[in-house]
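Task: sequence in, structure out. Protein: Flap endonuclease 1.
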Amino acid sequence: MGIKGLSKLLGDFAPSCMKENEIKNYFGRKVAIDASMSIYQFLIAVRQDGSQLMSEDGETTSHIMGMFYRTIRMLENGIKPVYVFDGKPPEMKSGELEKRKEKRDEAQKELEKATEAGDSENIEKFNRRLVKVTKQHNEDCKELLKLMGVPYVEAPCEAEAQCAALVKASKVYAVGTEDMDALTFGSTVLLRHLTFSEARKMPIKEIHYNRILDELKLSRDEFIDLCILLGCDYCESIKGIGPKRAIELIKQHRTIDTILKHIDTKKHTIPEDWMYKEARRLFQEPEVTDPTEIDLKWTDPDEDKLIEYMCTQKNFSEDRIKNGIKKISKARSGTTQGRLDGFFTVTGITSSTKKRKVIKQEFLINFTAGLFESLNSTLFLNLY
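Result:
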């Protein structure tokens, strides 16, 4: 679920934190991608005649097809993806997981009714609601990524928290996910719609964490409390408090603890044994692997093993897989111009000199870009 209503709240109260971009503008960027979210999207979207793709032995392959082609698309656009897989869910998430199970059970009952009635539209609808990412789906994609030469990370707990840690440690530029709680975990940049298909014609939405705090005039801990009020995966929220009321209460009282002392409990029911403090602590101190211990390497694809895996084991077209491998190799071997902003970093800026330093930096970048263009030159930097 992520954080309920956060995207709309930011659009209403902190619009400057968001901007829209095209995928080509992320050339040269390393991006940590929530693997489970991507796999779920592929299981939902990659279908034939309303059903998931299957191998000859009846194994689902929609997630493999989606992962293969979507990763190639990012590589062709100069993005260096690293996929992050969920570890064990935190104990506090058990309530949310139970709710999801109840919804799947209900969808199963509705599917049986639709099947009995021969209602093809509802059969497809409820089949999609029953989609769940399994351990086998994850293992299939890990094997694929290894053969493609794309790194992945196994998080000890929540993937979004590990992604955010990689961003904060400057291992990657941003987190690519649809779940807004990557921001609650402190990711400085969040990219939504990065892994959507081109057919959907949706621009990538880039959200900046520091601009959120600046525009909302909140501290990190106050923003976490706001997200808990909105509704997160780890505890219930106060009934009757929507996004607008939540931001008003946080700005007025600054913490949930103070809010509870002033709120009208007759109008707003406080959850019994509300574990907001535990949820707050989970966002503040998530269980993650130290990013300094993670070595991200992009390598050449193992062509023979990739063909054997995709074609012999999973029954995909050999011509299409070979064509995909050529695209990966071309992206790997091509000599392309790197990001100019990677060559200029401004450190140790005081408030009195900040504007002058920024102007100087922009001048250097523009001058260098013009020089490269006039010489028709390229920087000999490999994509990987």
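The radius of gyration is 23 Å.
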